[in-house]
Write a structure and sequence with these properties.
By secondary structure, the chain is mainly alpha-helical. The protein is 81% helix and 3% strand. The termini are far apart.
Length: 181
């Protein structure tokens, strides 16, 4: 049905999404507790978009593995910066960095996904690509809320455990290089 490269890529995709959703599940409440207002959160979302866009204009080429490593690194830096916010500027910088993670992950994941999918399997592989994160988005926030109620530190430890699993799986991916104008 699916080739080995596709399966290895998909096995990376699912823990990556678990890491993102699980780690960010309680962030709105956490940010409010850190005195970040809803308006500041909206500005943070906008700055995240600017972070993505800036990479598009600054970078001209990159390899897939490096991009995936940078995606994981930027998410980890974002989480480290928002665990204890000293001022709004720290949150804005974190949001800008967080936006970069989307660029780093999805440009190369989408190409690898379709490159590693047989033409006859594109419908099924696309369904998996959209269903996996949807299912994770149901269970990861519940798990994050459960662990946060036990101990918030436990949530952060489990988040970084899923980070290291994703980092290991990124290393197993087939690398390729892209250049753009």
């Amino acid at each position: 049905m699916f080739g080995r490269n596709f399966l290895i890529l998909f096995v990376f995709y699912i823990p990556y999404h678990w890491f993102i959703v699980f780690s960010r599940a309680i962030l709105p409440i956490h940010l409010l507790n850190e005195s970040i207002t809803q308006q500041q959160m909206f500005l943070g979302i906008f700055l995240g978009f600017i972070g993505q866009l800036s990479l598009f204009f600054v970078l001209k080429s990159m390899s897939a593995k490096l991009s995936w490593y940078l995606s994981l690194l930027t998410i980890a830096v974002y989480i480290l910066l928002v665990i204890s916010i000293k001022n709004a500027s720290q949150f804005y910088i974190a949001s800008f960095i967080n936006g970069m993670s989307l660029f780093f992950f999805y440009i190369f994941y989408n190409i690898a996904h379709f490159k590693n999918t047989a033409k006859t399997e594109i419908g099924r592989s696309s369904a998996l690509m959209f269903a996996g994160p949807g299912i994770i988005s149901i269970f990861a926030p519940l798990a994050a809320g459960y662990f946060a109620q036990i101990n918030i530190t436990l949530l952060w430890i489990l988040s970084f455990l899923s980070f290291f699993i994703s980092l290991y799986l990124a290393n197993l991916q087939t690398d390729f290089h892209l250049s753009w104008n």
